[in-house]
Design a protein that fits this description.
Elements lengths: L2 H8 L1 H9 L2 H10 L4 E2 H7 L5 H13 L3 E6 L5 E6 L1 H39 L1
Length: about 120
């Protein structure tokens, strides 16, 4: 076990944020909060995610107990993903952050533009 890994286990915040702190995990959880979804449907609605990255993200979320994977009895076989109870509770917590992001994005974008304009003036 590496020092970094053992260190993260001693800090619950770091341990959990290492997983859910990436954008793909957050977007997958938000999408699955609407209900169970098949792999291809998830890939269609999560703009920019590759099949490989979606597969890796879902595997990590399943390993962490946030997502379940169910193989459907169909031909060809299809896989459906859904949030677990723990995943649902995480989604509720992330809901407040999503609301905050939506409410404050215009202010943040304006601040970035103002900052960038100030940087250009300082250099020029």
């Amino acid at each position: 076990m590496t020092a970094r890994r053992s260190q993260s286990y001693t800090c619950p915040i770091r341990d959990v944020l290492d997983r859910v702190g990436d954008a793909w995990s957050v977007l997958v959880i938000l999408e699955l909060s609407r209900g169970a979804c098949r792999f291809n449907a998830l890939q269609r609605v999560i703009s920019g995610i590759s099949a490989r990255m979606l597969s890796v993200t879902l595997r990590h979320l399943e390993r962490d107990g946030l997502v379940t994977r169910k193989v459907l009895d169909s031909s060809p076989p299809q896989v459906e993903y859904a949030l677990t109870e723990t995943g649902q509770s995480l989604n509720e917590a992330m809901g407040k952050l999503a609301q905050w992001a939506e409410a404050n994005q215009p202010k943040i974008r304006k601040s970035r533009a103002d900052y960038d304009a100030g940087q250009e003036q300082a250099v020029g």
